[in-house]
Each structure stands twice: as C-alpha cells, then as structure tokens.
Amino acid sequence: MFFLRFAMPPLDSATARSFLGAFLVACLMTNSAWADQGEAVQLVPRADQNLMRVRIELDVKGNVNVPDNPLVSRQSELTLPIKSDATFDYEERYLRPPQVDPRSEVPTVERYYHKASSSSQLNRNESTLQLRDSVRHVHVRRDSLPETIYAVDDYFSGDELALLRIPVSSAAVDQLLPVEAVKVGDKYRPPHEAIVALLNLSAVIGSDMELEVVSIDPRHVKMTLRGKVDGSVEGVPTVIRSIGKMVFDRQLGTTIWLAIALHETREIGKAEPGFDVAATIKMLRRPLSETIALAATPPKLDSGRPIPEERIFVDLQSKQVGVGVLLDRRWKMMTDVPGSTVLRMIDTDRSIAQCNLRPLAKLEPGKQLTLEAFQQDSRRTLGEQFSEFVEAEQRVSATGLRVLRVVAQGAVEGVPIQWTILHFSDDSGRRVLATFTMSADSVETFAGADVQFADSLRLLPTASGSLETAGTHSASSPAATVAAARNSGAGSEERVQSASDLR
Fold first, then answer.
1. DSSP letter (8 states) at residue 77
2. Cα separation of 283 and 398, whole Å?
3. Whole-number Å distance between alpha carbons of 43 and 171
4. C-alpha–C-alpha distance, residues 215 and 184, integer Å
5. Above pLDDT 70, what percent of the chain?
6. Omega before 416 cis (within 30°)?
7. Cα separation of 78 and 44, whole Å?
8. What are phi and psi of 343, to 5 degrees?
9. Using an 8 Å Cβ cutoff, are 339 and 483 in contact?
C-alpha cells in the first residue's frame, strides 16, 4: 500500500473511532470556525488547470499480518508492528484529451518529485529511503487502476516503487466534487468510480462515504467527508474507513487542500501480507503558471496504447545472494535471507511461478561447469519427480555472464510440474543458481520470463560487502521449493528487512 512504520497494538473498532475522531477535532481546531454562509454554487474545476505543485505528508501506524504460507492459507502466523512517516513534494501535469469533463479521470500524469523520502520502522528494524535522482521524472498511467507509475530514464527498485504508492491520489481529488450546485448543509455521495480513483483501488464493492458542505464564502467551499469503503486491490479484499475535510478554491477552480484519516484493514494476499493500519494524510495543492523541473512542452503520450513493456520493469536486488535483476511487476521478493532469496510471480492474486536463488561454491578462476555435468546434477537433484529434459542450452548473457539453462518436466504428488534451472558464472569463478518452479498449466502465463531474467541478471556485492559466496551445487529440489515457500512469509524477525519485503 505505502511505506509503513510504528509499533502499536492491533486497532479494534473503538480504538479506530477514537483515533479518527481525535484527528478530525484537531483538524477543525487548526482553522477558525467555518461560517455557514453562501448560496448554492457550482464546484466546477477549471478544464485548463493542468499544472500543479503538490505537497503530501503521510504518517502511518499499525500492524502487518504475515502468513506461514500464503499459497496454502491466508491465516496470519506473525504480526509485526510498523510505523512510517513520509514526505512528498512534486509538480505534476495532467495529460488529458481536450473537451472532457475536468471531473473525469486523468488518464496520464507527468510528474517530477522534488522530494520523496520516508523514515520507517518495522518491528525493531529502522530504515530510511530517498528517491534517487535518476527516477524523479515519472509518468503515471491511470486509465486502469490501481495506477501504474514508471520512471522515464531509469528503473525503480522495489523499495522505491513501494515508497511512491501513496494511499490517495492528488490527480483524483477533484473527482469527488458534486455535479449539481450545492449550498451549506448539502450532503452527497461520490460515485464509486471517484472513490476508486481517489484511493487507488481496483474496485469498490460498496460504500457509504458521504461529503457535506459546511461553509461557502466568495473564495472557498469547505466540506467534510466520512464513510466506509469495501473494495479490493488486485483481487485482495480491503476495508477502508475515512474521515476528513477538503477545501475547494472557487477562484483557482480546484481543490487546494485535503486532510484525511484512513483506517484500512486489508486481507492477506498471495504476494503481500495483510495489514491493519491507521494513516493520516495532509495534501496541499496549488496551480502553477509554469513548470519548474518538467519540460515546458508536454510530452506526446497516447493513453490508448499499452505502456511499453520495457518501461515497467522493476530492479529487484538481493542483498544476501548478491544479484540484481530486471523483472516485470508481477514478480515480488518474498524473502531475502543469507544463502537464499525467494521470488514469486503473482498475477491478480494467483500464483504463477516461484524462483529460488542461491549462491554456489566458488570455482577456481577459469574453470567452468559443463552443460552435460549440469544436466546430470539437475536430474539427480530432482530425483523421482524428474520425467524428461525438454531443453538444454548454454550461452553468454547480455551482462557477460555464462549461462547454463535446462528445462525439465515431471510431477509432484501427481501434479505435472515444469522446472527451469539456470546456472550463472563469471570468469572469477563466482556462481549463482536460479530455479523456476511452476505447474504445467502456468507455463503459458509464465511465457519464458526466465529469458528476461537471464539477460538482465548481474552480480552485486552480498550483504557482507563481498563478492565471494559459498554454498553447494545442486538444483533446488521440489522439497526445497516447498520449504522455501513455507518460510517466505514468516520466520524470525531478522528475515524481514524492510516494509517493501512484505509487499
């Protein structure tokens, strides 16, 4: 959802109501009393106001619920306290077709982050993160939600991508505005489409969110909002309770301020843990007359075309095994512990494949494992589950590593399984093994993802700062794959390194 931190007990309904109520009282006390004046007015955002400066302050407290094995059960086995505060300062330009209702969804946003940073604590592990300069210029596609954000010149790391998942969208605030003229005391419920856009959900199943106009003057219209939303994010159910206020500037023709408290309870998914958190968000928006860091001329982007596949890779890095790889965003890092990293491909909360990464014992410089020996070792490791090899090849990757690749078929407990096993080595003798495991009916969806994996994998220093690694040479067996899966969501607190590891 977003970067999280702070240790607190689970939020029951009474605690949540107390927290949200205290927040609203504090908000209302920050300004002078809102006058009940003004006649019925139209709240129409300006269609030509497409350049904004936005500042967001986000504070999150709560708990993460981690299952023993999300592929088998969504029951929580481990609860970790979290706390996070983050600050965002950016300019954004809305790229939308001409002559459309300015309340409608903005399909594409161009954005430059002047600041994006967080300070987090997960259990007793503290961390800070700041967006790198190379990924400050981004494009945001909102024609399909949740939105997809990608950097123009580089690739996000997993942590950076998690940092930018803010629980409300500055590009969607004006979608909450009523179509009909309103006067003080009027109440209205925004359509589900506006709530999906604001909270960056996949769908809203039901909602009683309501906005009330509390004051109107020649410059401002002030409203409160509250309500419960039942929705989902990429197939995972979530419940959000909200309370807050917003201000529409009649002269500027846009919503300039939103202060909102959210209490979200999200179920455990196959790629991400569940959580029970309370977040406070303060958002300030101001129109800009000209760009600051963005180019003066808007880019030519066709929202009707798919995002170029190569732009939405994420740079997943294992500090423990010491590798980095570019993969599409269906891949999630489940664990990164000494001697083992587990990645999993999840598509709309459906598990497609798992990749187990392990370092191998270093060979003498100049020595290499032969393809024939690699096949024999792989067959021996798979044991009785092995049926046949369907592919075997060797080549040099785009990053200069020697790659041995075999594809084997077999069965585990009567279920047809395919393994794709990759052996990487360099001239110094350093080696890494990657084993992809999937059911036979997932092979088409997997679509040869190991090819992209092999060509982008690069060797990095390990967590100890050394390029030297140790281990034993063998392909990951089905039993080892199952054991790794069971350890992917739970275990000792040292296994959890950051909030992004839990996503």
1. E
2. 44
3. 17
4. 6
5. 83
6. no
7. 48
8. -115, 150
9. no
